[in-house]
Write a structure and sequence with these properties.
This protein has four helices and no strands. The protein has helices at 3-25, 29-37, 40-45, 57-68. The chain is globular. The two termini are 17 Å apart.
Amino acid sequence: MNERSFETLLYGVTSNAVAKIMELNDWTEDVAMERFTASKVYAFLEREETKVWQYSALMLATLFNEERTGRLILPEV
């Protein structure tokens, strides 16, 4: 995938994940976006080779919440 295509995909995946994080945690968009983009999950998501971008928004939100409790384990893609 070329860089521009991945950036477009990343934008959509991030948007959906943040919406799910807002829903699950009852946070505002600003809070959810700030916390998600500072997370390890997001750091993996930004790297195309990790294939984390293939996870659903619910999976990303769940992994984000698990990271917050110290139990982050990425499932195999």
